[in-house]
Amino acid sequence: MDYPYVPVVRSASLNGYLDLAQSVGLDAHAMLRRAGLSSRSLENPETPLSTAAVSALMEHSAQASGVEDFGLRLAARRQLSNLGPISLVLKEEPTARAALDTLCRYLRLLNASLLTRIEEHGDRLVIREEILVEQSASTRQSMELAVGVMFRILRELLGLQWKAVGVCFNHRPPRDAKAHRTFFGTTVDFNSEFNGIVCHTADLQAPMAGHNPEMARFAREYLDRALSGQHQSTKATVRQLIAALLPGGRCTSQQVAQHLGVDRRTIHRHLAKEDETFATLLQSVRSELVLRQVQDSDLPLSEVAQLLGFAAPAAFSHWFRSTFGCSVTAWRTQEKAKAAVRQGQP
Questions:
Q1: What is the band of 196 on the pLDDT scale with cuts at 50, 70, 90?
Q2: Where are the domains of the chain?
Q3: Selected residue with higher pLDDT from 230 and 187
Q4: CA-wise closest residue to 169 among 202, 138, 205
Q5: CATH architecture of 8-218
Q6: Disulfide-capable partner of 68 in 54, 90, 174, 272 (CB 3.0 to 4.6 Å)?
Q7: Pick among 3.30.420.10, 3.40.1280.10, 1.10.8.420, 1.10.10.60: CATH of 234-342
Q8: Structural contact between residues 25 and 62, judged by C-beta atoms closer than 8 angstroms
Q9: What is the pLDDT of residue 224?
């Protein structure tokens, strides 16, 4: 039987939130209530929270405090041990590259909406991250938290001497990017084509010293049981694949089926059981990603079109107007006016 799938994240993702919020002058409990969360839910790090609610909490907190690097400040309070049993397994992998593969395997247990892909390009390795929360609201702070946590994980696995080649974010730069450069210790590019970290491949292939293989074995068995017992709907799986395939060009149900090793008709049949179609999911993911792009970044529309799998800017412009009833330029103007009203500007 298929069950409704609600993306969740462990409450450990908000570890340190209460102290951080207080340090920047926020009423943490009021902010949690505004996002539909309770302080009690943060007491147990394994408590599942709505990823949409957590994302909203992060954005509201940054806006209310005027702290543009709120997500990074929260990431700075994160340690590998906050991953729970997964941290034991990661430390026992022979290389950081193997640890990344393991993290990707169990990532769904930590955050069902975070999509992480690892790509090798010669002597460079790119760790791409995307957040899918089925809403068009900004995920700027959640994304900076996710990339910041990934950076902290790599730094803990490889040592404080390790440096990334660069860090990229889709969204536009803050008024002052000094805090971002200080946090990552390298070049930080905004309005980029992806969110993530660029590394030297050789750094991640260097051997790591193990700690407690026996404890790691028990942790891996526990995680495998948890993973096998977790249900992920066809809808959620297809949404993640669409988001991953779109930047590479036109995304079709045939391509998704090939990645899953099944027939295209099988995909359509399983989606029909969940009252979904491939076309509606493609439209949903594109709509979610495009609004985030035009709201949070200043990428040229030609690049936005390419990231969403459109062959030409004209096709993208036609799709946007038919979907949202106006041009991208008009939509951006309306959103800027709404933002000014929310911030009390004239």
A1: very high
A2: 8-218, 234-342
A3: 187
A4: 138
A5: Alpha-Beta Complex (3.90)
A6: 174
A7: 1.10.10.60
A8: no
A9: 72
